[in-house]
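Ticket #4471: structure output looks truncated?

Reporter: J.K.
Steps to reproduce: submitted the chain below (328 residues) through the standard prediction queue, then opened the result file.
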Amino acid sequence: MPTYDGGHYFLTALIPIEWHAIEDGAVVTSPVHALRKQLELLPPAAQTPACAHRQSPFAKSTRTHFARFVVIDDVAYPGRLSGNTLVAAATGVVLTDAQPQDNLNCPFLLFVVDFDAASGDDGERDAYLSELWNAMSDDLANLFRFCRGFNATDGKGFAAYIAKCQLETTMSFNDYYAVTPNLPSWPKRIYLSGAVVAGGALGLGVLATIAFLVAALFGASVPSWLQDALWLSLAGGAALILVALVAYMTVMAAGRKPFPAASDSDLRSVLKSLHIQRAFTRFVIDNQVLAADPKQAQKLHDAFKAFVAANKPDDLDGPTQAPGVIGF
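Returned output as attached by the reporter:
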């Protein structure tokens, strides 16, 4: 999957962390330890009313769905690569000798964020990062000051810095499709028909070539059309390779295209949906008695009318769930 898919931009950045000793207050420490402390102090999304007063700074953005920071000290060692024991013994391989291992030359900060975007253009990414800087510049500067080469003082500089550290996102996750999206179909019949024709020409050419060789071997007269059999087989083979190559290129090109945006998958619509979901669940629980009694149909109707009027399902500016809030 591409970096941009389904109306969302999936940004992945791997940022090197400084390694020289720094002063953190009255303590001399390493940048990676100081960064970990700042990440611990960064408020997460509010999951209970008791912590609602400590909102995540990312809640100031009306486009951010998810954001995450991870400190990567080094790559994980997956263990020794296995091999054939008999081959190792025959070739003199000492199984207790250490194998080469990959290591990072410094710690890295992984920054991943999923946000609403109209396209996957670099300008769309930079505009979002500039907006994010304007919304939470103090928090971002307090984190990225421990990273190598960071000197951004405005949104443009922050966007340029993150862009230099960006990696392609190859496995994005987008689960907002309520129905199967309307995707264009790959013209497989065209390529299958071309493959059949080319394969038939190749097959006939091969058979004719065999007949030509047999006739020549036994000294029989060879029809003139059999003499062109080799060219027929070569043309059929070339056509079959060409059809396969074009089919492969079109499949890969189609795979690089992003899915269309799902309906109501922007952050404001998602937050409104979550609010309606919880509010309607409470409405159903509170009105079970009315729903079970046919004589109370009018009261249930009036209650639902009041529910719609209070929650305004079609109004994104009406009652909704606040950004950065989970579960209440």
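Triage note (M.O.): checked the attachment and the full token line is present. The longest helix spans residues 188-217.
Status: closed, working as intended.
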